[in-house]
Structure formats: structure tokens, C-alpha cells
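Recall from the previous lesson that a structure prediction takes nothing but the amino acid sequence as input. Here we apply that procedure to Gfo/Idh/MocA family protein from Schaalia naturae. The sequence below is the only information supplied.
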Amino acid sequence: MTVRGTGGPSGGNQNEGVAAPLRVGVLGIGSMGRHHVRNVRATPGLDLVAVADPAGDRFGVAGGLPLLGGVQELINVGLDAAIIAVPTVFHEDAALALAEAGVHTLVEKPLAVDVAAGRRVADAFDRAGLIGAVGYVERCNPALLDMRRRIAEGQLGAIHQIATRRQSPFPARISDVGVVKDLATHDIDLTAWVAGARYESVYAQTAYRSGREFEDMVVASGRLEGGILVNHLVNWLSPYKDRTTIVTGERGALVADTAMSDLTYYENGSIPLEWDQIAAFRGVSEGTVTRYALVKREPLAVEIEHFRDAVRGAGSDHVTMAEGVETLRVVEAVLESARTGESVRLS
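The prediction returns the following C-alpha cells.
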């Protein structure tokens, strides 16, 4: 496929060596898609040329663009890249159509409704030689980016445990999946990414408290490669928003508040305790606490830049569809464990 925006035979200012903007379309301009529209418009090197949503433009983001009815109308406009932000049940059909049309695509998380569908989508983009990305925007959160860098540099030493909390009131935008596929999928993805290790096993319990078809609470625990213990507390029934990731290692703990993009380091103490009772109880002493000053950019803006760079062949920081499939494997294991009451081992 020739990408129109890369300065190839069908586009770009080759005389000056400056690539023309990529022609981008967004499918789904609801609660999440409207933010994609805003960020595509603001991202250098991208040109928003079409939007589509069969449900209409309830947030009024189309601007001067005509509102198209679906993915085929988007394709007919002529696109280099597309973003899929429709409900999860529609991801597979839309993504397969875009792959067949030769359009690089970013699919909002999760990649598809299940592992089988996710693999079909990933395989289609691989066969076509296209960039296929998944919208796990937490990987672009400043606090988690800095946390991952510090862990990779050895600041914590060996990692012992990763715990996440993701709690908030029920979002009216969700209608086709439960809290595991909508929220817990973020924690599953970011945990494996931050640690650089895959899940070996999971055990989970879910609850249905709001009268919906899908679960609205989950508690999941497990183990990653290398013996790292993990725990995820996720629900849609808390009257406050909590987005916390805690990584505990042999030298201390890094705590990310991803709602505020804050990162704090709790260092193990080096001053010996002279009170034997407390020393025996604590195991480690309390040391210096440091909150890092971070450059805080909107994570979605960074995610779209990563996608743009991948399409250009200038970067590889996007979440690949293969990674999206792996996260779906863990998501399905969580749901299976909750259904059977047994721990599930991932081969």
C-alpha cells in the first residue's frame, strides 16, 4: 500500500522533502471519539478529512465535515489512517474493512470482543503490512511512563508486587461490556507493560450489583513471570474516582496517581530503628518520600502522536495488536476464573 501522506508517489512535497499530512478518518464520535477528533485536529502531520457515526453527532464535533454513516463511507473518502471509537462489538467488522482497504488503524481498547476476534483483526493487519494499534492510553500517562523508565533503570531493584485500583461511578457511555473489559483491561495491560513480564496465572471474583447484564465489580489477583504478585481492584460503584498503581520492589515503592499524573517514590529507610518492637513489625523502615515534577501532556495526544509516527515509520511506541490480543487472553482468563471459581493458568 502507498500511504498518501508519506511523500510517496501519490502525495507529499518530494521537492522539499516534507511529507504531506496523513488523511485521517474517525469512526465513532461519541464520548471517546470526540476526544480523538479534537486531538487529531491538533496533531501536526494529521489532517482530519472525515468522521462517521450512525448514532449522530451529539457532541457537535464534526465541524465543517459531513457526518458519514459508517466505515465504508469513510473508506470511500480515501484515507491513510483511521481511528475506531465505536462500541467494542463493532470493532472487528470495522477493523477488517479498513485492513482490506489498506488503511492503518488505531482501535480503541479492547481490540475486540474476545481473543478469537482479536486474532482475526491482528492477522488481517499483519498480512496487509499495515500498522494496527490499540488505544491503551494509560501507557501514555506521564506518571506511568516515568514509572516504567525508573523500574527499567533499576531504581526499585527486583519487583515484588504490583497493585492497581480503578474505581469510579458507572459511566453511562458503556452498554456492551462489563467492568473487566472496559476498565480492568487498562490495568492488565499497564501491569504487564510496566513490569516487562507476562501473566502466568489469575484468580478473580466478580459481582453484579447494579442490575445490569454485565459485571460491575471485580477483584483479581495473579502472578507474572519472575514471581511478581499482582492485584487489581476495579469497580463502577464508587462515588469517587480512584486511579492508582503501586509497584513495590526491594528498594521501595513507586506510587502513580494516574488521574492527576503524579508519581511518588517511597524509599526504604537507611536509618536503623532503635525501637525493637517497631523494627520487627515493619520489616523495612520508612525513608525519604519524593514526588517527582513531571511534564504533563494529555495522554491521548501522546497516543495519537505515537500512532502517527508508527504509520510514518518513525517510531514504534504504539501498542500493537499482538499486545492487544495478549491482554484479551488475560481478560478472558479473569472472566473464566470468576465464572468457575478456579485459578486459571495462562500457558
